[in-house]
Amino acid sequence: MSTNERILPKGVSETDFDAALDRFRETLGAEQVLIDSDRLAPYSKIMMAGDRDDYIPSAAVLPTSTEEVQAIVRVCNEYRIPIWTISTGKNLGYGSAAPGETGQVILDLHRMNRILDVDPDVCTALLEPGVTYQQLYDYIKENDLKLWLDPPAPSAIAGPVGNTLDRGVGYTPYGEHFMFQCGMEVVLANGEVVRTGMGGIENSSSWQVFKWGYGPYIDGLFTQSNYGIVTKMGLWLMPEPPAYRPFLIQYQNPEDIEEIVEVLRPLRIAQIIPNAVVIVHTLWDAGTHVTRKEYYDGSDSIPREAIERIKADEGIGEWNVYAALYGTPEQIEVNWKIVEQAFGASGKAKIMYGEEAEKRGGGFSYRSALMKGDMNLQEFGLYNWRGGGGSMWFAPVSQAKGSETKDQTELAQRILGKYGFDYVAEYIVGWRDMHHVIDLLYNREDPEETQRAHDCFAELIDEFAKRGYGLYRTNTEFMEQVAGTFGEPLREVHRTLKRALDPNGILSPGKSGIRL
Ligand SMILES: Cc1cc2nc3c(=O)[nH]c(=O)nc-3n(C[C@H](O)[C@H](O)[C@H](O)COP(=O)(O)OP(=O)(O)OC[C@H]3O[C@@H](n4cnc5c(N)ncnc54)[C@H](O)[C@@H]3O)c2cc1C
């Protein structure tokens, strides 16, 4: 398909599409309805191993208020126009700002970027979808509030609403974002607005503090789904602690992942270590600032000998644990002793903080910043590791048990190796779970390599599912396959909800594999 050719939404006539575009222009003004391929180009960029032609929008609309979103949705319902919603549109490695399929109209909410409320007493915020982490961070600093955010790695450019709705993660004690979300305003497919939780009560003062409201809890229905458009979202912010100690623990052998997880789990569950800890493999830790070709130029998976050279040259471990303690200086001293004792028992770990950790190779400085909610873009360095712009996050969940992480690591390395890719990975530790996040990096400019990356990702999904490991999130190319691994009964429930809430199937068709 050529981008010069006019792209119409699936099943919509040219006349109807033109009529709908006119109605969008009446509501938003002509400037906020994009149809030229030049202006739509940023919405067609993908990093995943799919065909670019499968992800071209037919238009983009940019509202600034809930009322405008309602008006757009009503028009879409009338003409059966499918829309794909984005907030700040930086879902990089999971589909970017591109639609789920060619022909959908992008509903880009980045101009709805008001910070509606920040309450420093109960530590909450109410935001529109276009607010970025940087914007909220600046607001907090300008107003001298003692509050911390929990950004994901590309924080400065991404936003809390989109990230939370895709159930993203960060690195402070508030790392599991959906857990710290409270209250939503949602535009439904028929144009009506619903407020969740306590938001249904007029003038409620507890919308942002009590998650559950009355009756069935429905906020989850609007995450990783296509049942509504979130136009406001509440979230909890962390009070700035009096003291903070980020630290680094390095282990040198591949099989040490088992010991790390066994030592870490009880400390995490008991909240001795309260934050979303990461256990970073050599190639990720080095890959943020080292390129592959400095060590190996082959097109197959990087050999062990090269990994050992990287470890020695860079001063990083096979596994690098980044975590932090928070509280008063006295609390930190007590907890630090517990951490030192637990990790020191076997004699395998090198345990560091402060200057000693800063001097080691790897990502201590940017990780320390992320674990206290500061912004940086250091992780984008990973795109220079192999080069060529291809990136797909493969992110299966495991129990926080050493045996499972060892099994998952070996399985991933075997499959990636079969297709000639490197294991660039980390584990992000929740309370009892781990997100095993693997960046499948490849050269998108090379069609053969892109096809190989596609086949590799598909095999990873299937082979992991066969062993009982599902993904926590995926990119738009593989939504259907991943939904299949969770079984038909669940898919049927998703479909039933879709029919009830969006009978014309206009909202993000295909998101998470859900269609009418
Ligand atoms: C180097 C690098 C590191 C990364 N590290 C992390 C990380 O640490 N943690 C992490 O979670 N991710 C990470 N990512 C992935 C991703 O970039 C972030 O999750 C980012 O925050 C998502 O972009 P966004 O916030 O702009 O979301 P958006 O793209 O705006 O939204 C994400 C998706 O949510 C849905 N959605 C958005 N807004 C709405 C709405 N208003 N109503 C209904 N549905 C909506 C849509 O399906 C949309 O596609 C990383 C990416 C890169 C490149």
UniProtKB/TrEMBL annotation:
Name of the protein: FAD-binding oxidoreductase
Keywords assigned by UniProt, alphabetized: FAD, Flavoprotein, Oxidoreductase
Cofactor(s) the record lists: FAD
Coiled-coil boundaries: none
Domain of life: Bacteria
Species for this entry: Billgrantia sulfidoxydans
Domain FAD-binding PCMH-type: 48-240
Gene3D superfamilies cross-referenced by the UniProt entry: 3.30.465.10, FAD-linked oxidases, C-terminal domain, Uridine Diphospho-n-acetylenolpyruvylglucosamine Reductase, domain 2, Vanillyl-alcohol Oxidase, Chain A, domain 4
Pfam entry (one): FAD-oxidase_C
